[in-house]
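Please review this one:
***
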Amino acid sequence: MPLATHVTNRYSSTLLIPLTNANDKSATTVDTTVLGYAVDDVGGDFEIVLGRAYEDAESRDVSVAVEGVVAKLMMRTGNNAQISKDLHDQYLQRLRQLRKKLIPKSSNLRTPTSDLRGKGSRKPTFDELLFDNVVPEQP
């Protein structure tokens, strides 16, 4: 489900209408263009802070991103500047915490070999006796 849909499912239109229509007090619907801009900006934040794209299947991403969209919309209304700034700062802090919680994933089935063989250290393959006669960059 797209991020904009997550936002509209979690927040009432009573809240979203004034946030997406800051200049139109008589609006009766959510301005999907403005909502889309906020969604795009949050996606950009994920790229900048986490170094990866927002993943809709990841519940932590959804939780942080929904909060980020609302924080960005509140900042753009110009109302309650301190509250808006605090919400945006809280969103950025959660985004940074998400970066700390990234777990490396791998589908590699290989296991690393031991660096020690017997009592001595293991040499890389190119350092074996077989290559002693080879002179690099010979004319």
Observations:
- DSSP finds five helices and two strands in the chain.
